[in-house]
Amino acid sequence: MTRHADPDTRRLQIAEALLSTLSERGLGGTTLADVAAAADVSVGLVQRYFRTKEELLIFGIEYVYQRATDRLHQVEVVPPVRDVVVGLMETFLPLDETRERELRVWLNFLTASLTSRRMAAIHQAATSELIDGITDALTAAQRTGELDGDLDPRTEAAAFVAFVDGLCLHHAATGDGYDATALREALVTYAERLFKRGAA
């Protein structure tokens, strides 16, 4: 990496180093010096962009959420809605090395959000935005007759998000017990039950 990289490139370089370090050492075991070493830059350069460890961590979790949002936008929105919803929620599952690392980082930030108002606010905003999106999709499914009109779309959306979060948590805790195949099958089964229960 050139010593004269532009600020945005530097920040992304440092963010990638942060994710790598956090996934290996956890939140408590990660220092600015660790991140600087992983990015192959000086601690002073890291502090030029992030004055404190908290600023760096907040940038890191926003970076993770932005990458998840970018994947959401890549899902093609075409009927049937059930397949769209499955595609959207699948983007959050740790199905490759990159998302596996993001999951480990996300779990560290969840712990931090219990004591940091700023991190909690970031998590709450991201979760609310996701639930809003799934709510809109389920509402559209009701209009097309794929989902029972008596169901509450927001309640079902919140439950769906919580279910996927639970899959991710159990994957992180048990590994082989929730491998990629099992994760996909569980997601599809949940969606099929929801839409079968509500099909007009």
UniProtKB/TrEMBL annotation:
The chain positions of domain HTH tetR-type read: 8-68
- Alphabetically list the UniProt keywords: DNA-binding, Repressor, Transcription, Transcription regulation
- Zinc as UniProt keyword: no
From the UniProt record, which GO molecular function terms apply? Answer: DNA-binding transcription factor activity; transcription cis-regulatory region binding
Which InterPro entries does the protein's record reference? BetI_C, Homeodomain-like_sf, HTH-type_TetR-like_transc_reg, HTH_TetR, Tet_transcr_reg_TetR-rel_C_sf
Which ranges of the sequence are annotated as binding DNA?
A: 31-50
Q: Which SUPFAM superfamilies match?
A: Homeodomain-like (SSF46689), Tetracyclin repressor-like, C-terminal domain (SSF48498)
| A Pfam family per the record | TetR_N
UniProt keyword DNA-binding present: yes
Protein name from the UniProt record: TetR family transcriptional regulator
